[in-house]
Write a structure and sequence with these properties.
Layout (H helix, E strand, L loop, with lengths): L22 H4 L16 E7 L5 E7 L1 H4 L4 E6 H5 L5 E3 L5 E3 L5 E2 L5 E7 L2 H10 L1 E6 L28 E8 L1 H10 L2 E12 L8 E7 L4 E6 L4 H12 L9 E4 L15 H13 L3 E4 L2 H7 L3 E12 L5 E11 L28 E9 L16 H19 L3 H8 L8 E2 L5 E2 L4 H12 L1 H13 L3 E10 L11 E2 L2 E2 L2 E7 L5 E5 L8 H13 L6 E5 L17 H27 L6 E4 L2 E4 L2 E7 H10 L10 E6 L8 E10 L6 E11 L6 H21 L29 E5 L17 H18 L13 H10 L4
Parallel strand pairs: 1-14, 12-13, 16-17, 24-25, 31-32
Antiparallel strand pairs: 1-7, 2-6, 2-8, 3-7, 4-5, 9-17, 10-15, 11-12, 11-14, 15-16, 18-19, 20-30, 21-22, 23-24, 23-29, 26-27, 27-28, 30-31
The structure holds pterin cytosine dinucleotide (MCN) and CU(I)-S-MO(VI)(=O)OH cluster (CUM).
CU(I)-S-MO(VI)(=O)OH cluster binds next to loops.
């Protein structure tokens, strides 16, 4: 990686791998997570959940539970109905039960809440609640959900006659059909991007603390978007007096979000309702199984993917048709105008101009959700489709997949590049990325080795993924959530002695914002990063923002930090001109001070200038040294990557060994290389996860078959290969510091590289596609079916 640092190590601006400030408390066990919050008189909540995927509730009997010492109440949907709190809106403007009054729609759905004076009593109470169910035949297979004889699940919606949620399409259908009809080569595969779970180390939870005397709610919770939650609470509960100034949302330290902490879960609403009614704090913390079984899932896209091209290997068009299984309700967290998120980035890194995509979303008796897990709003699905199909096309015409990519890449001089589905890619150098990855891994030698192995009947595969990401929502003209525009914010206050506190509308869940935001400000003002304290997550103090997800923090709040700091630098320049008795034009800036052109000894440090802002500022100038900026990006940023994976497969067992994995990322200018590397390592591990291990599996009755960590395989250090990383840097031309987001790129880019490597190994036996997760059994079965073993 080559990036020149403009600041000294002592200042610690952009490009310095300074150690993470937040780790001082994390490594000493001094983090402050929701479950660490203990308030006087606090009650505890536990939740009774449905064993059935679809059933009528005949009776809920709380008698035995209420006899357990410490249990104070059992709350049901009928209780909430009295206050019209038994339903809530989802972020996609669908509706979701908080607690059911008559029917449960998925296994592990909340049925009743037990409130007690201790967590143990609440759990005992939960076990003692008796519920009589009348099970019904559920809709589990999404392909059967639209059958005429399938039961209509959302009977709560008047006039609903099927399980269809919405239809979406983009691109030029007629032109695409024409190109496909006349193409020399057409390849097609049916693929499933499985339902998976973020499985963050910390589960979800909250402490709802309603103060009856002051009519004020403080909601401590594991949320990636505190301000949006505050607005939603006020919109939903304003009628009972909880207007927005009476609500404070605090997201303390978060142990992993990965998208799973964007949605609003029923547990939060029940905790607020109970605290509001009894006037005491109520804590609710999910256990691991509840988290895995009931919280928002990710992916679950069934994709029919097609690519058309020439015999020589020119990609001409793509066509993708998606069936999206949203479970019981559409509770994804996409921007309002984008029901499939940014799936339309699926045309990829390639220079062609014809594409058509459509998607239909359907209801089934599974838990709701549909966005989370390091996906940049469905970009994982998009990238998997295009990168798998690019390899599929190369295989069809017998061309090396790297060569095919080189021949089809958008060229670096062609940016800004308009995609056939309406995006304007800001910058990139795809050729340099792939070249660098191939050099790092020794591509040509690997192909030679593979040919020798193939001659001996051994299975070795090389897989490439050269993906384009789209992050940084977003330009407010296109992006909103529930009508709230997706800008983000920074507020910087510099104290008289030159030390600062900066607050943001985003919320780190482990990404290192306390360090990197300080570095951005250090870069712009020359105040050492260690003297800049960063705060996020308290809606009473932080400026309004939409939160951290979709790798948007650097593109939005990071930009806001730079611009707010530049406002302060402009002020510092005015003060310097006044103190040095020169005109502003005669001053020059170097990180940390202004000096007179040609007379560098005549200088004022930023610390002196800040002090003067409080003690000796020019008359007529506003005192103090503070600035705020709300940044509305002109475009998204388009990070990219070139990943290459090498696998060896044991023919007899199907066992897969990932021998090498090289990841070259382009996230524009880098703020902290060490943090970015950490993001990439974690993200790649969460990429190998769906590629080889993770998948939520349901039986025909809607029972989840792997609802604990015994069966749901989260890869650990043992399963992870030695990640080899590197960078290409094409700064974003519209971002104030030229940075692009990076948090999700590795999870987006890794699965197709792994899948492509495995299919490449198996291709001599006529295998053209395998759905992820690709397990040893799947490989063995495919080889057996093809008569290879
Ligand atoms: N960064 C940088 N230089 C760049 C880009 C980013 O130094 N050019 C740094 C940033 O300053 C920040 C980190 O890398 O400290 C990630 O930045 P960014 O890509 O802007 O992403 P966000 O901060 O918005 O984080 C969200 C992203 C998402 S959407 C998921 S999901 C995810 C991820 O981050 N969840 C995470 N990484 C995670 N890492 C941890 N530890 N925990 C999670 O829950
Ligand atoms: Cu797509 S998971 Mo992240 O956006 O929090």
């Amino acid at each position: 990686m080559t990036q020149q640092c403009k600041t000294s190590k002592a200042i610690g601006g952009m490009g310095h791998s300074i150690k993470r400030k937040e780790d001082v408390r994390f490594v000493q066990g001094k983090g402050n997570y929701v479950d660490d919050i203990k308030l006087d008189g606090m009650l505890y909540m536990d939740i009774v959940r449905s064993p059935y995927a679809y059933a009528k509730i005949k009776k809920i009997d709380a008698e035995a539970a209420l006899k357990i010492p410490g249990v104070v109440a059992v709350v049901t949907g009928k209780d909430l109905e009295q206050y019209n709190l038994h339903w809530m809106p989802t972020l996609m403007s669908d509706t979701q039960m908080v607690l059911p009054t008559d029917t449960v729609m998925y296994q592990a759905q909340e049925v009743a809440a037990v409130i007690a004076t201790s967590r143990y009593a609440a759990r005992d109470g939960r076990e003692a609640v008796r519920v009589d169910y009348e099970p019904m035949k559920p809709v589990i297979d999404p392909f059967k959900a639209l059958d005429p004889d399938a039961p209509v699940l959302r009977t709560d919606k008047p006039g609903k006659t099927d399980n269809h949620i919405w239809h979406w399409e983009v691109g030029d259908k007629a032109k695409t059909e024409e190109v496909f009809a006349n193409a020399e080569v057409v390849v097609k595969e049916q693929m499933h991007i499985p339902r998976i779970h973020v499985a963050s180390i910390e589960t979800c939870g909250c402490v709802a603390d309603y103060d009856k005397v002051n009519n004020h709610l403080t909601m401590y919770m594991t949320t990636q978007a505190p301000h949006a939650i505050r607005t939603v609470i006020a919109l939903v509960a304003g009628h009972v007096g909880l207007t927005e100034e009476k609500v404070r949302v605090v997201a303390p330290d978060i142990g992993g979000g990965f998208g799973g902490k964007v949605p609003v879960y029923p547990g939060y609403v029940i905790a607020i309702a109970v605290s509001f009614l009894v006037g005491k704090p109520v804590k609710w913390i999910e256990d691991r199984s509840e988290n895995l079984q009931a919280d928002s899932f990710a992916r679950d896209y069934h994709i029919t993917a097609e690519m058309a091209g020439t015999k020589e290997g020119k990609i001409l068009a793509t066509r993708f048709k998606v069936l999206a299984d949203h479970g019981y309700t559409d509770a994804s967290a996409n921007p309002s105008k984008f029901p499939t998120g940014m799936f339309s980035i699926a045309t990829g890194s390639y220079d062609y101009h014809t594409a058509y995509m459509e998607a239909d979303a359907i209801y089934t008796n599974k838990p709701p959700g549909g966005v989370a897990y390091r996906c940049s709003f469905r970009v994982t699905e998009a990238v998997h489709a295009i990168e798998r199909m690019t390899d599929r096309f190369a295989l069809e015409i017998g061309k090396d997949p790297a060569q095919l990519r080189f021949e089809n890449f958008i060229k670096k001089e062609d940016f800004p590049w308009p995609s056939p589905t309406g995006w304007i890619y800001d910058s990139g150098d795809y050729e340099a990325g792939l070249r660098k990855a191939m050099d790092a891994i020794g591509y040509d030698e690997l192909r030679k080795e593979q040919a020798e192995k193939r001659a001996n009947g051994e299975l070795m595969g090389i897989g490439i993924s050269t993906f384009t990401e789209v992050v940084g929502a977003g330009p407010s003209k296109d992006f909103d959530i529930l009508g709230i525009k997706m800008f983000d914010s920074a507020e910087i206050r510099v104290h008289p002695t030159g030390k600062a506190i900066a607050r943001f509308g985003t919320k780190s869940q482990g990404q290192g914002h306390e360090t990197t935001y300080a570095q951005i400000i250090a870069e712009e003002l020359g105040i050492p990063a260690e003297n800049i304290q960063v705060e996020e997550g308290d809606t009473d103090t932080a400026p309004y923002g939409l939160g951290t997800y979709a790798s948007r923090s650097t593109p939005t709040a990071g930009a806001a930090a730079a611009i707010a700091a530049r406002k302060l630098r402009d002020k510092a320049r005015k003060i310097a001109a006044y103190l040095l008795e020169v005109s502003e034009d005669d001053l020059e800036w170097e990180p940390g001070k202004f000096f007179v052109k040609g007379a560098p000894e005549k200088a004022k440090t930023i610390q002196e200038l800040v002090f003067a802002a409080y003690t000796n500022h020019p008359q007529g100038m506003e005192a103090g040294f503070e600035a705020t900026h709300y940044y509305d990006p002109p475009n998204l940023t388009f990070p990219s990557g070139a990943y290459i994976c090498v696998v060896d497969i044991d023919k007899e067992t199907g066992g897969i060994n990932v021998r090498r994995f090289v990841a070259i990322d382009d996230c524009g200018n880098i703020i902290n290389p060490m943090i970015v590397q950490g993001q990439v390592h974690g993200g790649l591990t969460q990429g190998i996860a769906p590629a080889m291990y993770e998948s939520l599996v349901y039986d025909e009755a809607g029972n989840i078959l792997n609802g604990t960590f015994m069966d749901y395989l989260v890869p650990t250090a043992v399963e992870s290969p030695n990640w080899e990383t590197g960078h290409v840097i094409t700064p974003s031309p519209h971002h104030p510091i030229g940075a692009k987001g990076v948090g999700e790129s590795p999870t987006v880019g890794a699965p197709p590289a792994i899948a492509n490597a495995i299919v490449d190994a198996l291709s001599p036996y006529g295998i053209t596609h395998l759905d992820i997760p690709i397990t040893p059994y799947k490989v063995w079965k495919a080889l057996k079916e093809k008569g290879a073993i």
